[in-house]
Amino acid sequence: MKSIDLTNQTIWLTGASRGIGRAIAEKLIPTNANLVFSASSKDSFKDMVSAFTDLSNIYFFPFDLGLYKEIKNTYERISSIFGKVDILINNAGIGIFKLMTEMTPEDFDKVLSVNFKGSYFCIQSVLPEMIKQQSGMIINISSIAAIDYFVSGTVYGASKAALTSMTNSLREEVRNHGIKVIDILPGATETEIWDKESLENFSNRMMKPEDIADVVLSAIILNSNPRLMTESIIVKPQLGNL
Description:
Rossmann fold; 7 strands
């Protein structure tokens, strides 16, 4: 995979501590960008801090993506150090898969808060400076569940569909400001979002987190070209949906 030199640019990645996020984080290190990795708690970062301790361009800012105040405070910390965010990668997400009759209000609020609301307000925080600079890139990691449907996916699918719809509208809103807005919709990927039985039965058909990380890095490379914007990328396993 070809890399890119992003020296002096700042990338903010949410959900960086595991799965697709961790794979993206590792792919970003050779870019020489200032990297801000976020996750829900300090504990989730322990092994990353140990692994990347010698790298001075990496910052770890844990916060609760479901709380607007924590998003705002985190961006203010980032801004105080770097002045702006050049690339925002909204990767954080959770899955609670239940039949509609079994879904609790708490489950509903948690999924929508992380998968949609959190991404929305992370974008809102970085956008004014991107507009001022007339440049920037926003990459939202959605899901094939936004456009394909499955049992027990009513809330998860709705949250990802909301994220994709918001992404499409935002793209038109900021297109004339030189800002790239990219929607990536991965299919089945081998992460902790799947239950043990599904992983045992289907992991051989799933993509790996590093596959999606390659797609993200490719999107960054392609969209560094000011003449084009890769608007939406759908990635499925070679054998299709499970």
